Amino acid sequence: MSHEINQFQDFDNYNVNISKFLTPFQQKVLLKNLQASLQPEYRRRIEIMLLADQGKSPSKICQILGCSYHMARYWSGVAKAGLAHQWQEQKIGRPKSVNDQYIERLKELVTHSPHEYGYPFQNWTAQWLSKHLANEMGIKITERHISRLLKQMGLSTKQRNNILQQETVDIQDSDIVICDLQLSYEHNSLEDLLNFVNTHH
């Protein structure tokens, strides 16, 4: 097995004639990039794609490179899909996950009107909460996950609408009434209007 590891880690014996998925151009680019000084994670991605192109299964690639099965399967799939050029586009490591700061910000957003944040609509949706938080905090999560988080906190995107309705009911039940004052004169008469202004001035 150590012979196989050495053989594939330096890729000196890579046979460009045995190709399952990659075009000659893709092979050339990947092999050239292996010669550059890369971060180990990027190097591993390229090695996985080249091994997959030679017909190695994800299990065999794991044995050869000592990587996780998930990683071997994922990057083998990328090579099979003809997307080998994307080896550098996906960031290294796990995506950022939801933390306490994210949860607190989500609570704050859902209890305030989207108007306060410059949006033209009155009520949040899980989709817009997800987009807003992705832009603001750099953490992308699905609408379903947003809805699940809100439910766990006992909140909802409909809650803001319920708060507005309750405020309207509270105002209607109060003893103070605010309305437009009506003037008791005819609008046709300029003289009546001037008299009214002079007597109330």
TrEMBL record:
InterPro entries (UniProt xref): Homeodomain-like_sf
Superkingdom of source: Bacteria
Designated name of the protein: Uncharacterized protein
